[in-house]
Amino acid sequence: MYGTPHIVSDVMTTTVAAVGRRAPFKELVEMMQDWQVSAVPVIEGEGLVVGVVSEADMLPKEELRDDPAEEYRQLRPPADMAKGEALTAGDLMTSPAVTVRANATLAEAARTMARARVKRLPVVDETGMLEGVVSRADLLKVFLRDDQEIEEEVRREIVARLFPPPDSSVELRVEDGVVTVIGRIRDTSLVPVAARLVRAVEGVMDVRFDLAPGQRAAEA
User: Fold this and answer.
1) Nearest one of 113, 93, 117 to 105, comparing CA atoms
2) Which of 13, 15, 68, 217 has the fewest CB atoms within 10 Å, measured from its CB?
3) What is the pLDDT of residues 167-213, one digit of tens each?
4) Which part of the chain is the CBS domain (predicted)?
């Protein structure tokens, strides 16, 4: 990929709500509401991340509150049944925590979230100490990138390299993150390569081509 991709440290939140293992259930609920988050890291010592408590970890408490029938209980995983009785963060947390490093690319963080099916990731250093949190919303900030900035990167890093003049004559248009490449190029076999590279540019929603073989290609 051309250009320099954004990394997690560019978008993560560094002021983080975190709890210790002994934090009670009610405190967790209050913290999530006050901070408007769906999960909090569980730390020990000076900030070592040992787990994460999410809304999903806490929901069995309400789910099982009215003592459902035994048939229903048997359908629930044993871990969920145990969390229905849990009173502290240490008993509720998912451990080990799924984390990400600050120097990971946003694409890497997004893949980690997708695989783990989580909405937020603690950001840790090489020793596992908490540095921040990155959320789905943080990763989507890249799509707020200005159209002109996208156009300049595509022109400089991709078009100038794949379709240089005088053999090619290419114009670019970018609207709401959709890149349109217009003109004449000598080697149309490079279009799939260009499409892959343009889609890899951060902030690009889609790429479209309106291209024809250049004059020299037609004569060859």
Assistant:
1) 113
2) 15
3) 889 999 999 999 999 999 988 899 999 999 999 898 999 999 998 88
4) 12-71, 93-149
Three-state SS at 194: helix
Phi, psi of 27 (to 5 degrees): -60, -40
151, 203 Cβ separation under 8 angstroms: no
Task: Show the CA angle centred on residue 207, arms to residues 204 and 212, nearest 5°.
Answer: 150
Of the CA atoms within 13 Å of residue 212, those in its CB half-sphere come to 4
pLDDT tens string 77-100: 667 767 888 999 999 999 999 999
The domain made up of 8-141 is a member of CATH 3.10.580.10: yes
Q: CA-to-CA distance for 122 and 40, rounded, in angstroms?
A: 8
Q: Which residue ranges does the chain devote to CATH 3.10.580.10?
A: 8-141
CATH topology of domain 147-213: Histidine-containing Protein; Chain: A; (3.30.1340)
